[in-house]
Amino acid sequence: MVKNVLYKLKGLIAVYIIMGLVSQLMNVLSIVYFQRIIDILSEIKNKADITDYIIIPLLLYAITTIACCILNYADNYPSTKIENRIYYNFKLLAIDKVSKINFLDYANYGTGKIIQIVENGSEAGKNILFGFFIEIFYSLVPGLLFSLIVLGTYSIRIMFVIGIGYVVIFIVSNLMLKKLYNIKEKVLIETEWTSNKYVRALMETMIFRVNRKYKQEKADIGKAYDEIIKSETKVVMIHEFFFAFFYLLVIFVKIIIIIMGIWKLNISLGKIVALVMLVDNIYSPISEFNIMYVKYNLDKVAYNRYVNFLSLKDDTNLFNGIELMEKPFKIKAVNFSAGYGRRDAVHNLSYEMEAGKKYAIVGKSGAGKSTFVKTLLGIIKGTKGNLFINESDISTINLDKYYQYISYVSQDAPIFDGTILENITMNKEYAQEEIWRVLDMVLLKEKIEGLDKKLDTNIGEKGIKLSGGEKQKLAIARVLLQDASVIILDEATASMDYLSEEKVLQNLFSEKKDSLILLITHRLKAIEFVDKIFLLENGEIREEGSFAQLIKNRSNFYELWNKHAEQQMK
Predict the structure, then answer these.
(1) Strand, coil or helix: what is 431?
(2) What pLDDT score does 350 carry?
(3) What is the pLDDT of residues 424-473, one digit of tens each?
(4) Which residues contact 484 (CB under 8 A, 6 or more apart)?
(5) How many CB atoms lie within 10 A of CB 266?
(6) Rounded Cα–Cα distance for residues 26 and 408 (Å)
(7) pLDDT at 58 over 60
(8) What gap in Å lies between CA 211 and CA 368, rounded to an integer?
(9) Phi and psi dihedrals of 489, rounded to 5?
(10) How far is 545 from 535, CA to CA, in rounded Å?
(11) What is the per-residue pLDDT across 160-181, written as a single tens digit (0 to 9) for each?
(12) Which of 43, 257, 265, 414 has a CA between 20 and 30 Å from the CA of residue 118?
């Protein structure tokens, strides 16, 4: 996974690390030359001689400090590109995962939780790869190494004092880490739970308003935010305690160096100044490493949750299996059951459907209609029996290749941010005459011709707003342009008025008379003209037959039809 994230970044990372190496070297050398300047100024009494001795150290000091400034500015280019590319590569990996994840695992997580896991995990992954590992080789190791080499030439005793200080810092940081780890995990769990509720509150506007749920939902989310804020504050305070403790320790070490330099080591003023500056150069990497190490371990909590998500089982049939050698012309189920986990949602289904005919699935809410459709798409897997596409069991076929023959339209017909033309053609090439013809068939031609930019009118988030029925018409226009042999309309006309629905469906049936068309609907008026109806109850097919046959039987479908007719009369 890390290899995928760092793809094409190896060269830029190498340049960035080399820039850091040179920058740290220049920084340490500038301290050395600064020390020589101070020693020259303090030791030479004759001012006339100072110029002769100081010119070269001063020039070298200027070169090294200016080089540091230039490098510190220049490294913003590779660092920004690397940091952002790592972050967005993690997000792209999540999209790739969602494109092939086992549907049941995806459904168990929920959209809001997945969004938060991906956001937290991508940020944590960026911090781990860039903010920890790359940064160690960019600044910490070179800075510490060069500073220790120079310090060793000044005083071994002071190196020993610094080493003791580091041991103290290491012990304190590890004690702090255990406390922070538990708090961070709690924050992540709370954030994911809250995100799920937050997304639901934003998306289910009508339901929440009508059922007056916003007040309670806001209170629940607010309470969760209070807990998150409390935990985040604890994390910050513990972090800041470490910084305060560290700086006190550095001040203490500097005082010891000054005392030892004057009374014990008898070294020059310049070297004392250099030693004090080098302490910052040595302890800053040590401090940064400990802080980074603590953050690294905290980020691992979010990162591991992200990795666990990426490790969920893929749909093994999505890109593997038998490729259909011809378009699906027959679908047959034999005692087929399927469901979610241990629970079957459809039971012992036996039916046949073939190209050139129209079918409908009806039933009360919870009867198993949506699961029925998901089994046809291979999203929900069978637990027993067989479901054949042509002569191949659906569990053995390559679903990605199978989908090229299928057009599927749901009740929430997706409209993408772009032009009407882009939404209809989905970036495929069609003649203008053909596009206007299908728009006429879905009763949108007149509306679009009345727009200033016509097919180039922007719709979606940044453009004109379409009604629910118009969105569904646009989605069916896509189907009319596509060459699908299986067309599934899952409540795809539910937002249209009855006259529009009847006209659009009649045009679809006529245009796609060679395709297998399946309607899933609760509006029974739409199914009078299909060849066969399947009535589902509790996940089983209770009745099947033509509309006329089922009405004549005066059984379950007849009762459902009468109730529907009564509701329409009201």
Answers:
(1) coil
(2) 93
(3) 887 788 888 999 999 999 999 888 888 888 888 888 654 467 788 888 89
(4) 405, 406, 407, 512, 515
(5) 8
(6) 63
(7) yes
(8) 26
(9) -110, 100
(10) 9
(11) 766 676 677 667 666 666 666 6
(12) 414
SS3 332: strand
Q: Which residues pair with 519 in a beta bridge?
A: 360, 489
Question: Which two structure tokens, joined as six digits, stand for 337?
Answer: 């059951």
Contact 318, 402 (CB under 8 A): no
> What distance in Å separates the CA atoms of residue 141 and residue 451, rounded to the nearest whole number?
64
> Token pair for residue 43?
């030791």
What is the distance between the alpha carbons of residues 57 and 52, in angstroms, rounded to a whole number? 10
Cβ–Cβ < 8 Å for 358, 512: no
Task: State the Cα–Cα distance between residues 314 and 320, nearest whole angstrom.
Answer: 11
Asked whether 384 and 337 are in contact (CB, 8 A), the reply is yes
- 499 forms bridges with which residues in the sheet? none
Is pLDDT above 90 for 336?
yes
Measured torsion, CA atoms of residues 316, 322, 324, 330, in degrees rounded to the nearest 10? -80
CA dihedral 8, 11, 17, 23 (to 10 degrees): -130
pTM higher than 0.90 for the full model? no
Cα→Cα distances 452→161, 311, 429, 444, 458, Å: 78, 49, 23, 15, 11
Q: How far apart are CA 55 and CA 443, in angstroms?
A: 87
Q: What share of the chain is helix, strand, coil (3-state, %, to 5)?
A: 65, 15, 20
Q: CA–CA distance from 28 to each of 31, 323, 390, 520 (Å)? A: 5, 64, 74, 74
Residue 301 CB partners (closer than 8 Å, separation 6+): 124, 181, 184, 185, 188
Q: What is the pLDDT of residues 121-158, one digit of tens each?
A: 999 999 999 999 999 899 888 887 887 777 767 666 66
Q: Which of 393, 376, 401 is nearest to 488 (CA)?
A: 376
Looking up tokens 């071994």, which residue turns up? Answer: 156
If you search the block for the tokens 């979010």, which residue do you land on? Answer: 302
Please choose, from the candidates 241, 327, 332, 338, the residue with its C-alpha nearest in 3D space to the C-alpha of residue 291.
241
22-26's contacts with Cβ under 8 Å and 24+ in sequence apart are 22/67, 22/71, 23/67, 23/68, 23/71, 23/72, 23/75, 23/139, 24/139, 24/142, 24/143, 24/146, 25/142, 25/146, 26/64, 26/65, 26/67, 26/68, 26/71
Q: Could you tell me the domains of the chain?
A: 2-306 (1.20.1560.10), 356-381+396-569 (3.40.50.300)
Q: Please, which residues have CB within 8 angstroms of residue 557's CB and are 6 or more apart in sequence?
A: 362, 533, 535, 543, 550, 551
